Amino acid sequence: MGMEDYTPYQQGIIKRYYANLDQVSWQRLSELVADLYLAEGKKREKLWASAVGYMQKLKIPPARIHAIAAAQDIEALAQLVKELMNKK
Q1: Domain residue extents for the chain
Q2: Confidence band of 18 (pLDDT split at 50, 70, 90)
Q3: 67-80 burial: b if 16+ Cβ within 10 Å, else e
Q4: Burial letters for 27-65: b for 16+ Cβ neighbours within 10 Å, e otherwise?
Q5: C-alpha 4, offset from chain centre
């Protein structure tokens, strides 16, 4: 399905979404930090998997992603989000 299948209004929404994808990703990553503090068990594992996905979308170096995720270091993740917010 190409962009020609959408109305000009819908095309504008889609373009703005992808133009702001970085902002959407780090915002969701920051929400995950709070969720991870409260989560336990399988939910925590799913949230970590989501966090890894968002870090990959934000093009964080794989070594850093692995270090944060392997240790499940919420504070390091929060520090990363803080760094991303300072860039914006």
Answers
A1: 3-87
A2: confident
A3: ebbeeeebeebbeb
A4: bebbebbeebeebeeeebeebbebbeebbeebebeeeeb
A5: 29
